[in-house]
Amino acid sequence: MSAIDVQDAITRAHHEEWARVVAGLARRFGDLDIAEEAAAEAFVIAVERWPTDGVPPNPGAWLTTTANRKAIDRIRRESKRDDKHREARMVSDDDPLEPLGAVEDERLRLLFTCCHPALGREARVALTLRLVGGLTMPEIARAFLVQESAMGQRITRAKAKIKAARIPYRVPSAEDLPARVSGVLAVLFLVFNEGYLATGPDADPVRHDLTAEAIRLTRLIRELLPDDGEVAGLLALMLLTEARRTARVSARGELVALPEQDRSAWDAALIAEGQQLVRERLATGAPPGRYQILAAINAVHTSARDVRDTDWCQVVALYDQLVRLDPSPIVALNRAIAVAELDGPEVALAAVDRLRDELAGYHAYHVTRADLLRRLGRGREARAAYDAALALAGNTAETAYLTRRRDQLGESPSTDDDR
Question: Which residues form the DUF6596 domain (predicted)?
């Protein structure tokens, strides 16, 4: 086996086995620090030995055995952990763990622990990416534009809170499961959104590593909870959104809005998979949740060969459904964008202006107003709305797009004109 093949095997093992190894260690020893460090040591040893010894027939078992030995060695070395030494399940490496059903998969226990509602949102995201996703501390820090030391402290504090609050390492009870799954999905959606359009001015506008990781972890939950409609809905939403990623930013580094995107550049395989998930959920006849409706909206968009072919009537109807589930101002804003295509920009602008008090600090509100005012020929007001949006814009791609759109209006006149 070549060095490249060995490296590929190690990379594949890291993607496939990291969460499983960490989760197994966390259950066995009851300590996330020990679990994380022992798993990391096992992969370091794999990098050292596999090029010489060869890739083992069962990489996951090899990594688990090695990590368990490292964890036991650490506990034995640290005299201050005598009590933990006695309490830990110091089973031999070849002792089988009790069989687990799909919903009892160790990785799912780990996900629920990382996303426990007692932890702050930022801590949940960081822990999930580190312990479940296997991202390094520098990778996580870079993704969220914080210093590596600060991110390390955030993760350390979160693990300490889990220990101090005695947060259980388990899948929630049946009655608590829906609410807790919702929290896990919210974390993964946050990771995906940060990757799809980064909020930081110094970040790459699109972070494929984060979108890919969010999709991978959502696939994992889909595998573990195959009957959960919102898990399927979130996966479909991510796939249909990710399918448009390569058309999202121009060669000049400027954001490309949906109507202007080259649809031939969209990923047909991801669209087919996402639309199939949407159809499967519709076929169940079960009332759809928020992610399922958002996925259905994206399915309508990705079904149109040209923006002029979009079934805006269906899009508005889906937003009407979503408003009943989530009557937030952001949903109302997105509905207004669709209404503009169906009933005209004047009707949509009236709806958008009613959201001013709630969304004045939200850049997309000003972007939407600018576009509607532009279409109505109210150039001076449109320029002011673009300026407000630029003051709140998150990254260079969006700034470039908004600047171009504003500058196309020409110099600001003393009165509104029809530019």
Answer: 180-280
